[in-house]
Design a protein that fits this description.
Blueprint (H helix, E strand, L loop, with lengths): L1 H4 L33 H10 L6 H10 L2 E6 L2 E6 L10 H4 L3 H18 L3 E6 L10 H13 L4 E6 L7 E5 L5 E7 L11 E8 L6 E9 L1 H6 L8 E5 H4 L7 H11 L4 H11 L12 H10 L9 H15 L1
Parallel strand pairs: 2-3, 3-4, 4-6
Antiparallel strand pairs: 1-2, 5-6, 7-8, 8-9
GO biological process, one term: ceramide biosynthetic process
Pfam families: ASMase_C
Protein name: Sphingomyelin phosphodiesterase C-terminal domain-containing protein
């Protein structure tokens, strides 16, 4: 990254579940024994990422695998190692409170940013409300996002390899925040590869638009001597006819997809796998609405809005 983009472009990393060995295992900070703790990983990443991180960021990274940094006056980033809440992290059985300690750290950092008027971008590998996270975490994380929704200008996730987003809702049922999935530049079963370029409002630091670029793996494998043919698949605002990328606009889009503009649901289903010729043609109506349902589930047992969208969709296509 440093070689390609140069030393004047900041790269903000975030730890994923495959970084540890054994995979998915992130020991609590209280585990000090050699060959048991995850200190070896955090120390090595602090050295590898040294060029980009402040001393304070490296200190926190070595403890939790998380850190926060001021990107520019008014904008802070929090890189959150939410693998502590990953159900396949067996250390949860030994000490289920480590994820609580991480959540408390997150709240402290958001509160400090709130007090001095900073906006925050959150980077977290695992998206909110997916079944890889244990249930209680999804509820508490949802509460944190709602509490600091005026401070958090954006959240960005990976892990699933699919192209998706999540809408958070407050206790009154109003849309409060959006978490944006990045997709994946690495290959995954029946998904094409992608990268995204987001542009931000220089005052609010909220996303103005997100453009997705992909290449077709089938085409790449058929032409192994040619460099991959990257092309723009869509841009969020224009392809989905949005005024902006706010939580309210994204919520309106979801309801349009299942009532008055089913073509947009077809778009979303195609873009979900980045128009994979293995997965997309086989995505029937049940597949389409299942994918859309995921966007409104951020607390794993709160599926009422999902069922509402499902019922609206099948009522629309039956008319």
């Amino acid at each position: 990254m440093k070689k390609e983009f140069g030393e004047n472009v900041l790269v903000v990393p975030c730890i994923g579940n495959h970084e540890s060995q054994p995979t998915n295992q992130f020991a609590p900070s209280t585990i000090k024994g050699d060959k048991l703790n995850t200190t070896w990983l955090y120390d090595s990443l602090a050295r590898k990422w040294d060029f980009y991180l402040t001393e304070d960021a490296k200190t926190t990274l070595k403890k939790y695998g998380s850190f926060t940094m001021l990107i520019r006056p008014g904008l802070r980033v929090i890189s959150l190692n939410n693998n502590y809440a990953f159900k396949s992290n067996w250390w949860l059985v030994y000490d289920p409170l480590e994820s609580k300690r991480l959540m408390e750290w997150l709240v402290q950092e958001l509160h400090k940013a709130e007090l001095i008027g900073e906006k925050v971008h959150i980077l977290a590998h695992i998206p909110p409300g997916v079944h890889d996270l244990y249930y209680t975490w999804t509820r508490e994380y949802n509460r944190v996002i709602n509490r600091f929704s005026k401070t958090i200008a954006g959240e960005f996730n990976g892990h699933t390899h699919s192209d998706e987003f999540k809408v958070f809702y407050n206790e009154a049922g109003a849309p409060a925040a959006v978490a944006w999935g990045a997709g994946s530049a690495t290959a995954y079963s029946d998904y094409n590869c992608n990268y995204k370029i987001a542009t931000f409002d220089p005052n609010t630091y909220e996303p103005r638009n997100i453009v997705n670029y992909v290449y077709n793996l089938t085409e790449a494998n058929l032409t192994p001597n040619r460099r991959p043919h990257w092309f723009q698949l869509y841009d969020m605002k224009n392809s989905f006819q949005l005024d902006d990328l706010s939580a309210a606009s994204m919520n309106n889009l979801l309801y349009r997809m299942v009532t008055e503009d089913l073509l947009l649901l077809d778009f979303y289903a195609a873009f979900y796998s980045k128009i994979s010729d293995r997965r997309w043609p086989n995505c029937n109506n049940y597949c389409k609405i299942d994918n859309l349902c995921k966007t409104v589930v951020t607390v794993l047992w709160h599926r009422e809005r999902c069922e509402e969208l499902r019922n609206l969709f099948f009522a629309t296509i039956s008319n």
